[in-house]
Amino acid sequence: MTPASDYREAWQSARASFARANSLLHEGLLGLSASDLDALVDAEDRLGKDTLDELRSITEEGARHAEAAVDLLPDGVEGQLYLALNLAIQGLTRSRTSAMIGGLPGRVRAAYTRALAIDPAYAAGGAYRLKGKFLMSAPWPVRDYAAAGEALARANAIAAVRQNFLFLGDLRYREGRRGEALAMWRRACETPEHPATAEIDDLVLELARRRVAAASKE
């Protein structure tokens, strides 16, 4: 094999791991019962141990493949982005203390920052989408709602995908801007499927619909 083919195999394996973990994550979120918006928006905090263990196993493997890709080609956007994405989901499976001690937030940020420097439009603005989600969900002192909103707006400028609007709705809700949150969740419901996010678009649509339904009852 050539270095180019080795790199391609490594990042494609990392992408496959992320895709498996991302689908499992969304299926797990949909499997949780939730009666109000707080429970829906913060559902990631209520995932069960079995789901978390499986997510950790998948993303640890994915991160290893991505790290191999980065070693082969540090300036390859694919390796950097799928490293960040695998690490970000892996972070959900660890306590905040464990994640901070292990340096996960810094590693996620370094990888998506490098991906943005190389090609911000790759994967329909995937690095901006991750940055927005990460800065919205990370614990203090990493959390930054203003920077999260800016990143998600930039992702939308590249490609308006359902997940951007779902995340924007969650961000506005956490900021206490409920009217804007509902508008964003409705946009997620109205946005067509996008080739770059087609694997989870149906799952994202259902998550958005549940938020709209819950908001309509309040």
Write a structural description.
The protein has helices spanning 3-30, 37-41, 49-72, 77-92, 96-101, 104-118, 122-137, 145-158, 162-174, 178-190, 198-217. The chain has 218 residues and is an all-alpha fold. Helix 1 (3-30) runs parallel beside helix 11 (198-217) and helix 9 runs antiparallel to helix 10 (178-190). It is globular and about 60 Å long. The mean pLDDT is 94.
What share of residues is helical? over 70%
- Spatial gap, N to C terminus: 59 Å
Helix-strand pattern: HHHHHHHHHHH
Oligomer description? single chain
Write the layout of secondary structure elements.
Layout: H1 3-30, H2 37-41, H3 49-72, H4 77-92, H5 96-101, H6 104-118, H7 122-137, H8 145-158, H9 162-174, H10 178-190, H11 198-217
What would you say about this model in short?
With 218 residues, the protein is mainly α. The chain has helices at residues 3-30, 37-41, 49-72, 77-92, 96-101, 104-118, 122-137, 145-158, 162-174, 178-190, 198-217. It contains eleven helices and no strands.
